[in-house]
Amino acid sequence: MKQVKEKRFGIDIDGTVTCPTSLVPFINDAFSLNITLQDITKYDLSEALNIPLDQMRAWFDETEPAIYASSPPADGAEYILSKWQQQFHLLFISARRKHLFEITETWFKEQKILYDHLELIGSHNKVAAAKRNGVDIFFEDKHDNAVMIAEELHIPVVLFNTPYNQDSIPDNVIRVDNWYEADAWVHQWIKTNEIGPITRP
């Protein structure tokens, strides 16, 4: 199975490996709101919640470490990623800033999620990092990132469905609802070596 083991998966962290609801309790507490994930229909929290950008940015800078330290994994992430680690190279590429590396590394250890590479690039433009690492498939929750990576690198991107990423997508961006569906699509893609509709469990 040498060919399978050589596959290199680029994987976003927040809202992809971590549950996209992770920051909702923090938002509700800080801004005296009572929202759910369904209320966040835009990736830009300031725009989605009608909170001034400077206020939202200051809050996020202050709260970011606590959010990352306490984020629960997304449904199925631990199980599927542990299974994949035996078969594929797992390269986690995140827009988190580099000073958050220790918190990020500790979270992965606590969740017992192994990886071959962990990179915090401090930017949402992940094309260069994905290209440099020779990624075969990318896993993402941010719509713009998914489209950019798919179109510029000509690789499939698995986009995890959230209320904030519902804009249209090109053919090589594949929507899934959870890690179990991502796993089903991956194995179909490897078997057929082409992008096809996901077979939902």
Automatic annotation (TrEMBL):
Superkingdom to which the source organism belongs: Bacteria
Entry keywords, A to Z: Hydrolase
Enzyme class: hydrolase
EC code(s) of this entry: 3.1.3.-
Molecular functions (GO terms): hydrolase activity
Family: Belongs to the 5'(3')-deoxyribonucleotidase family.
Protein name: Nucleotidase
Native source species: Domibacillus mangrovi
Phylogenetic classification of the source organism: Bacteria, Bacillati, Bacillota, Bacilli, Bacillales
